[in-house]
Structure prediction request, 239 residues.
Amino acid sequence: MPQTYTLSLVNRHLFAFTVEGRILVDTGAPKSASPSGHLTWGSSVRRINKGGYQNFTFEKLSEDIGVQVDGLLGMDLLHRDTVLFDLPRRELTLGAPMPAGAQSKTYSTVIGSDIPVFATRLNGRSADVIWDTGAQFGYLTDRKFAEGVTPTDGFEDFSPLFGDIPAPESHIIPMVINGRNFTERFGLAPDSVNPSGLSPVSMRHFLRTLKIDAIIGPSWLQGVKAWIDPSKQAFALID
Prediction:
């Protein structure tokens, strides 16, 4: 039986609302977490990690994102059923069939996880990208994907895994996903280790080791519906 939750994009982060409150939807996180160690998802109350996410408390996440965050929904729960992200209608539907007329494509995953990796084109180049709805900006592992694109203002970001992420400049880069055209704002993945994060290696080194070219966030979902079936590693986009 499909179940629908309110979905919203706030400060470039994707949230669903459950009985626990505002939950960060994070397709880049392998595990879910909440202050209580429980999250109501589907027809059940699920036991998940308690306390925080990696080295971040939910108080810290709330402070850095700028809104109250009451939990984090990762791929350990998201992979259990199909999910329809309908940001234009502010709805997330669990257990939704693929919409009529849609054509799905297969995707891969990060090694040892259910985190989705899409075969895309960035600025005309083939690229394997992590779809990370917990990332407010995109990140590139190589400047070649920004060739010919005029740089714009940078940004300050953070990651529980990689710590504070300063991006001196960014690029608005065209990308093609499932034959559809979008844009994403990208910074260059840092090539140095930040002691405020958990990772002993830099973001760029980490992604390249996984043979990942970039990370994309959720901002491009504002004009399209996205349907995903993790059991079949299938993905579709719908007007």
Summary: The chain has three helices and 23 strands. The longest helix spans residues 58-65.
